Amino acid sequence: MLPRPDRRPVFVAAALAACHTSHAPPVTLRVSAAISLRAPLEDLARTWNAAHPETHVEFVFGASGDLASQIERGAPVALFASAAEEPVTRLARSVRAERLCTLARNELVLIRRRDRALDGLTWETLATHPRLARLALGLTPTVPAGVYAERALTALGTLDALRPRIVRGGNVRQVLDLVARDEADAGIVYATDVRDRHDVVVVGAAPATVSPAVQLPLALVPGGPHDTAARALGHFLCGPDARRTLEAHGFRAP
To answer: 25-105+215-248 belongs to which homologous superfamily?
Structure first.
């Protein structure tokens, strides 16, 4: 009788292949996002990663203009969540980014440091208040909050008078921190940035007549190795569950 063929190598190879498949590292989807979106997007990423173990979401947060420049220079980014339309429009021309949706809306608010000497400060009295020496704004044109703020102040007719007193933050959170640390007397940030903050005083939203339309678009950056997975993540971020999460963090429905 002929000896039975030894099939153990086949079984071992199959087992190794199965092991390799089950422990394959997840696909990483990198998302560049405006820093004002950090809290809701990190919440949404945890939800996504739990439901899709084959993918993993990573973020780069910063000023929208800086992030757009990084993408133009080849940063490996799948999706871009901007605090303004202009960076997405720019990327649509330069790298053929595809606008997927408006994630949410926001509004500008004026804040000041906690000092009774600044009582009476309003949007309309920024240029005339005797104790306002430094006004913090986002660096233009890379920080959309700074661009929006300058537009609002121009409409109020006070930007030119305020220019000598303006100090700049590299993103909207840096503007908030300048005021919180008493390195600026007042600043202009997004309403969502001052939720649950007790180290500054919120003066109020920009007057309706000069309030800019702050919209936060999401775009797909094509050409990456995981476009299908990126589009699925984009669909999730544009969906109703994500909208509820954004609204829970103070953002307005688009």
So the answer is: Periplasmic binding protein-like II (3.40.190.10)
